[in-house]
Amino acid sequence: MTNIEIKARFRRTRRSKNTLKKIGAQFEAVESQVDTYYHVDNGRLKIRERDTGAPQLIQYFREDKDSPRPSYYEIVHLGSVERVKKTLKKEHGIRAVVRKKREIWMWRSVRIHFDIVEKLGDFIELEAVMDDQSEMNIREEEVRRLMVEFGIEEQHLVKESYVDLMEREMRKNADSNRDPEQPQK
């Protein structure tokens, strides 16, 4: 499957609520999600555990760029997650765990996510789902329209995945906790 998406640092305000109403977006759900990312050679691989549905194994590939970009992904719904997590941890090792609360809205083919990510802050994601590649320009236009509606400017865009941001945060914390008198390895 393919979607066109952006991620941006974003704090919810009265304007966002008014924008949702103005464009006629439909509320879908609020979920608590835990994404466990695993080390892989290509793309990203994670297990998503949510309080509103079955766990999912998600693999996706996309360029890290700060503009609307295609993301290619596969989702497998899992019954029992513990065995799969144990196997993936043994085979690949855990890269990072990302915990978030996600509010989900729909507008046309676009999923609007307002995320509060533990240790990282507040974000918005816009994901326009495509049935086929011929829709790419239309879906990108929808995402760009919503960027304008929500006041998202290019400098707010985040090119990395939450896992990349979390790894950066972990390195920063490790560096700040390091004793400056001790030699680095």
The amount of helix comes to: 25-40%
CATH superfamily: Hypothetical Protein Pfu-838710-001
Stretches where pLDDT is under 50 for at least 5 consecutive residues are: none
The number of helical runs is 4
Q: How are strands sequenced across the largest beta sheet?
A: 1-5-4-3-2-6-7-8
Q: In CATH, what is the class?
A: Mainly Beta
> How confident overall, as mean pLDDT?
92
- What is the general shape? globular
- Kindly estimate the percentage of residues that lie in beta strands according to DSSP: 35-45%
Q: Describe the main β-sheet briefly.
A: 8 strands, antiparallel, barrel
How many β-strand runs? 8
Commentary on this structure:
The structure is a single chain. This protein has helices at 14-23, 82-92, 136-150, 162-177, and strands at residues 2-9, 26-38, 44-50, 53-62, 69-77, 94-107, 110-117, 121-130. The mean pLDDT is 92. It contains 4 helices and 8 strands, in the order βαββββαβββαα. An 8-stranded antiparallel barrel has the order 1-5-4-3-2-6-7-8. It is globular, with a radius of gyration of 18 Å. It has a single domain (2-175), classed as Hypothetical Protein Pfu-838710-001, CATH 2.40.320. The protein has 185 residues and is of the alpha+beta class. The longest helix has 16 residues, at 162-177.
